[in-house]
Each structure stands twice: as C-alpha cells, then as structure tokens.
C-alpha cells in the first residue's frame, strides 16, 4: 500500500477537521512521579474516555502495580529529535536501548535477548494495550513512531502480567493520543539536522458528539551517519472512538508503516573506533537493505459494568518484508488475535480487593522464502518455508488490601503455544529437519506485597515465574546445510525483586534490586557477523541475571532569579550482572553483549516563561564483552549532550538537540561471538555509535 494513499486520506481529514484551540505545554525531563493508587476500570475523567483514560489515570494505574514499573509522559521527549525508542526510554532505569543504525536498535530489559544481534526477543510490545508482536513472539521497532505517542508504560518482568505477558523482560505499552488526551487539536512539526535528516509530522483531532477522531502522520528522510545507511520511513496512525451508550465505548485503530532502510553492517573493532562512517564491504556489494510494509487494524470495546469493566480487544497485523542480507529474505505474514479482560474493585469481608482476569488467543502464519542475493535482487530460491504459530493464554492478578496501606498480590498465567515449521526448499540434513512441530505449555505464578505508608511512597517485593518461548529466528536456524528446525527448550526463570518509589518534597526516587535464576536461557552467538548471517541460538543450562535499577531526581534550586525558575538534577543508573553458572563451556563467565553499568545524568533548568536548558551525560564506564569466552571487551565511553528551547504562549515551540558534542568514537552495540580469540583478525561484529550531531525543530500547536 503506497504511502500516497494514506497521505491522501490525511489531507482529506485535514480539510474536514477545523476547530483551532490554543495550547502551550512547557517541556520537562523525565522523572519518576507517583500519585494515589487507582484501580483500572474507572469511568472517563480528566480528559480521558472509557477506552483510553487520561494521562494522569494512566500513570496511577501503572504505579498501582506491585513491582518495578515506569511511566514516561510524551511531554518529556516531545521537544527533542525523538526518532527511535532510545529517545523515548533512555531515562528509564533497567531498560537498555542502543541504536545500531537508523531505527534498528537493541532493546533489553533485565538482559532479555541479551546476546541477540537483531530485532527483539523476551519483551512484549503493545500499542494501546494491544499486542504489536507477531504470533511467534518476535517483534520489530519500526511501527512505533515516537511522534505518535502520548505516553509509554514499562512493566518489567512478571509485572507485565496485567497484560498477560510473562517473559523475562516484561512488556512496554505505547499509548497513542486520542482527541481527548492530545496535546492540542492541531499539531504541525518540522525538524531535522545532521546526516541530511528532515522530518515532517502532522496531527489533527476532533470531538463531535459521541464521536472522536485523531490522525497522525510522519515522514522521515535521512542519509544516516554511516555510508549505506540512507533511510526513509512513512508512518500513519489513526483512531476513531464512538460512545455507543452510557458506559459502552468502542475505538478502532489503524496504522500503516513503511520503512526503506539501507544497512551498513558491522565493522571490526578497529574500524568501529577509527573509521566509524564506513560500511561493511559485503553490505555494499550485496546492497543490503530492509524494506518493510506493515498494516495494522485493532479494536477495543469497553463496557462499564456494575462491578468493574470489561474490555474486548481484537487485532490483525499484516507484514511484508524484503530483506537482502547474506541472502534475500522475502516474507509475508499475518497475525490476528482476540483478548477479553475484566478488571474491577469489590469488598471481600470488608477489605478492598482489586482483580484483573483475562484471556488471549492469537495466531499467525508467515510465508518465509529465501533467495540467493544478487546485489540486492533475488536469485535462485534456497528456502520455501511456512511458519505457523498459535497461543492460548488465561491469566489473573489480584491485590487484596488486608490492611489499609498493605496489599497482598497474587497472580497466575496458564499458556499453550505451538510452533509449526515446514520447509519445502533448501537441503537440510534429513527430511525430519524440513518439518518441526513443538508445543510449549506451562503455568507462571506470581506473589508479592505492596506497602504504601503515604500516598506518594511505595515499598514492594515480589517473586515471579517467567517463560520465554523460542521464536522462529531461534527455531529455524541457518547452517551449512541450509535452514534447519532446532527444537529448543523454553527459557524458564524465577525472578525476585524488592524496591521502592516515591516523592518527598523536592526528592523523587525509583530503586529496584532484582535477581533472576534462569534455566535453559536462549543465548545467541553470531556465525559470521561480517556477512550479517543470523545468529545461532542454544539453551544455556543455568544462568543468573541480577542488578540494580535506580533513578533519583532532586530539585536543587528553586526561584533562582525571582521568576519561579528551577534547577533539577536527575541520575539514572542501571547495573547489569549477567553470568553463566558452572557452564560446561563458559564456566561462570559474563554473558556478552551488554555493559555492566550504564549511567545517565541530566541537569535541567526551566523558566515559567517556557525556556529550558538541559545538558546531559551518557556514561558507560566499561564496555561490554564481545564474546562469551570473555576474551575481548570494547572500551567504555562518555557522551556529552545538550537540549534547549522555548515554548511560546501562542503554541509555537522551538528546540535544539545536540548529541555527542565531543564527537566521541565508541561501540554502540555488538553482534556477539563465542570466542573472539579464535577469529582470525578479530570479529567483524561491532556497530559504531553516531558521531556529533545537531538537530532542531519547530512545532505549532493550536
């Protein structure tokens, strides 16, 4: 579906939606904010509606979770060049997000998919509470447009049970605005800067009686920091809500996402640090690229009942991928599902009780073909495979307030997931390797305590069970014989966490300590990262992931000049300790791919008149290991950044976003190998980070 069609729809909607209203919102940096607990299921209030509550209600629902969570208001990144999920989540402790090139990045929470060198595993992505992942659990980042978001909700590990997710990493829910929650009825924006970058965005929304509608469209063009990194993305999101009757509302979502991204590939460590703008020669000769066309339709219908509320979600996602790398990967897939879930509050023997119950059934089929890559074109076919996945899940979570300020949380999820693979092409070792059928089943419990001595202070502790089912990138592995089905075990873990979050006067904090004891962890290593061949996956018998997730913010000065201005200092620290445990090959080595400590410091000066200045430092004291043998580690680094701008009362906003001002040379991400010492000349496994860049923009809101 060419973008010109959606662009025509956007233009038509722009002509129909005409009702200006002034709005100017001051820019702020991300900080941990708490409010009184509320229970999902309340009616519309404060700018929200039944299907999508107000931003304040969204925040309260997140913070009512017994466990480590985070809430990001889009107000924190709207005055920046927010192009990827790193720009959305970089201030969230425990979330590791590093760019590779363009919009391709590594997203890991608590070491989920720690050594995976491409895409996503171990985290469920949702948009407006409805899954974005494909039926086999794999996920992409390309269809999440930061300029289309109103907030982001991070549920780490088993705390994502509220959506039915129980993977090691948890879930991230990206909430798009409706006409009730949008910053303004009309928003027009243009920004750009380094590397030939230009981006245009338009958003319009209206409310007419029982109907509300919003459209958002973004077009981005960039040459990229490295050679052979040109990208063009075109994203269109829309939603329409209708209040059928008092207490009944339905909302339809539609999205079209087009990505055309050239791939620069990985480099040697020397080139990554000294010649970072180079592309891998094989990326150029193979004209490696990634072209994705995705269409998404979804619906949420909400019923306000005498006790609680019932939401029924349904969705369908179509994805077409043309991906010349070591071979041309040509896939066409469809994912569809339905999920009813009920939430409510009622008394049990005079005590408050909050309950969530849900079902999810979703499935999909993917035609996965591969061809010889002839300079980016398809040659002889090498793989003709059909991948089918189905999932059936039932889950529940309960918070019983046996004291006014103490709640016992219990939860449970039962699931059955099937993966079927059939390959009619290629030359696998045996006919059995052409076909695979495996079903994963299990029950994941959760138990925890929440103590809330004051409305803005919480202390919690919990134990959760997680299971990560392999996706087809794990199960259908490339080797010298072609594509072979490898029936891996599901990854299982017990995670223990304790933490506190809250606010006292000028101090805000969010601190969690956790440990996950893992069996059969799905670990990757690159067969030949220089040629961009997908990594192989194996089950590590025993591993442990543990760490600290901390964010502290202090308003150190107030009313500096008598104008009501403030100076705020925030520190984000993520400590990662991920290890093998008595592994027959790797002993107690660190699992490669993610650095041990990641720190971010932000100093923010704001004036009530709309001016702000926010310098920041991203610091990785020691780089990550490049191999599981721990024979090679990349250098640490520090990046100096500054963001400034002004919001005028008439709705016009200007911003400047400068990054890596010292032009530091560093490794942003790694395609992990088993033992770098055995690779002649060293592995070609490193993604260089972007050099100095400056972006600026103007936004009109009315």
In CATH's first tier, which class applies?
A: Mainly Beta
Computed CA radius of gyration, to the nearest angstrom: 24 Å
Report the biggest beta sheet as strand number plus sense, adding barrel if it closes.
22 strands, antiparallel, barrel
Structural class estimated from helices and strands:
mainly beta
Describe this protein's structure.
The protein is mostly beta strands and 702 residues long. The chain has a single domain, classed as Maltoporin, Chain A. Helices cover 6% and strands 55% of the residues. The protein is built from six helices and 33 strands. Residues 1-46 have low confidence and may be disordered.
Summed up, what is this model?
This protein is mainly beta and about 700 residues long. It has helices at about 5-15, 55-65, 85-90, 270-275, 280-285, 470-475; strands at about 70-75, 95-100, 105-110, 125, 130, 150-155, 170-175, 185-195, 195-210, 210-220, 230-245, 250-260, 290-305, 310-325, 325-350, 350-375, 375-405, 405-425, 435-455, 455-470, 475-480, 480-485, 490-505, 505-525, 535-560, 565-580, 595-605, 610-620, 635-645, 650-660, 665-670, 685-690, 695-700.
């Amino acid at each position: 579906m060419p973008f010109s069609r959606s662009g025509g729809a956007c233009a038509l909607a722009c002509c129909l939606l005409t009702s200006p209203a002034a709005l100017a919102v001051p820019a702020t940096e991300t900080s941990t904010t708490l409010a009184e607990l509320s229970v999902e299921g309340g009616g519309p209030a404060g700018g929200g509606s039944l299907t999508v509550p107000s931003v304040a209600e969204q925040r309260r629902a997140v913070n009512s979770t017994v466990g480590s969570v985070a809430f990001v208001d889009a107000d924190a990144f709207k005055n920046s060049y927010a192009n990827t999920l790193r720009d959305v989540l970089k201030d969230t402790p425990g979330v590791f997000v590093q760019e590779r090139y363009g919009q391709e990045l590594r997203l890991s929470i608590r070491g989920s998919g720690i050594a995976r060198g491409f895409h996503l595993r171990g985290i469920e992505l949702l948009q407006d509470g409805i899954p974005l992942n494909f039926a086999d659990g794999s996920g992409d980042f390309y269809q999440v447009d930061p300029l289309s978001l109103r907030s982001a909700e991070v549920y780490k590990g088993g705390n994502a049970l509220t959506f039915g997710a129980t993977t090691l990493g948890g879930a991230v829910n990206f909430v798009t605005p409706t006409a009730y929650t949008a910053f303004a009825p009309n928003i027009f924006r243009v920004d750009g800067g380094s590397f030939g970058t230009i981006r245009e965005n338009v958003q319009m929304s209206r409310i007419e009686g029982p109907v509300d509608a919003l459209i958002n469209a973004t077009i981005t063009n960039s040459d990229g920091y490295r050679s052979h990194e040109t990208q063009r993305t075109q994203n269109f999101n829309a939603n329409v809500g209708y209040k059928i009757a008092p207490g009944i509302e339905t909302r339809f979502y539609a999205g079209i996402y087009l990505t055309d991204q050239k791939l620069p590939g990985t480099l040697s460590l020397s080139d990554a640090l000294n010649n970072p703008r180079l592309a891998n020669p094989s990326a150029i000769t193979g004209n490696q690229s990634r072209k994705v066309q995705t269409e998404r339709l979804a619906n949420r219908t909400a019923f306000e009942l005498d006790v609680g509320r019932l939401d029924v979600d349904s969705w369908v996602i179509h994805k077409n991928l043309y991906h010349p790398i070591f071979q041309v990967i040509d896939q066409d897939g469809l994912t569809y599902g339905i999920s009813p879930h009920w939430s409510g509050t009622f008394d049990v023997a005079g005590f408050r009780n909050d309950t969530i119950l849900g079902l999810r059934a979703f499935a999909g089929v993917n035609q996965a073909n591969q061809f010889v890559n002839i300079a980016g074109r398809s040659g002889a076919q090498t793989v003709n495979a059909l991948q089918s996945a189905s999932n059936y899940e039932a889950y529940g979570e309960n918070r019983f307030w046996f004291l006014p300020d103490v709640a016992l949380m219990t939860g449970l999820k039962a699931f059955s997931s099937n993966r079927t693979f059939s390959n009619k092409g290629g030359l696998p070792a045996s006919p059995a390797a052409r076909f695979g059928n495996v079903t994963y089943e299990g029950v994941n419990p959760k138990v925890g305590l929440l103590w809330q001595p004051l409305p803005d202070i919480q202390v919690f502790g919990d134990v959760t069970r997680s299971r990560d089912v392999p996706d087809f990138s794990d199960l259908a592995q490339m080797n010298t014989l072609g594509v072979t089905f490898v029936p891996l075990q599901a990854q299982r873990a017990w995670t223990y966490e304790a933490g506190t979050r809250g606010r006292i006067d000028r101090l805000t904090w969010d601190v969690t300590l956790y440990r996950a004891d893992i069996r059969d962890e799905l670990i990757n290593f690159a067969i030949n990262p220089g040629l961009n061949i997908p990594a192989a996956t194996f089950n590590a018998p025993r591993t442990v992931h543990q760490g600290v997730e901390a964010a502290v913010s202090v308003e150190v000065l107030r009313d500096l000049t008598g104008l009501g201005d403030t100076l705020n200092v925030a520190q984000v620290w993520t400590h990662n300790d991920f290890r093998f445990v008595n592994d027959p090959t790797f002993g107690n080595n660190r699992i490669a791919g993610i650095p041990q400590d990641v720190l971010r410091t932000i100093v923010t000066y704001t004036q009530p008149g709309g001016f702000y200045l926010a310098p920041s430092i991203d610091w990785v004291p020691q780089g990550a290991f490049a191999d599981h043998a721990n024979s090679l580690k990349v250098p640490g680094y520090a990046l100096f950044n500054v963001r400034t701008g002004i919001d005028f009362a008439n709705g016009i906003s200007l911003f400047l976003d400068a990054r890596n001002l010292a032009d530091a040379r560093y490794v942003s991400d790694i395609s992990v190998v088993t033992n770098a010492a055995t690779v002649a000349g060293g592995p070609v496994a490193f993604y260089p980070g972007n050099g100095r860049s400056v972006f600026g923009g103007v936004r009109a809101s009315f």
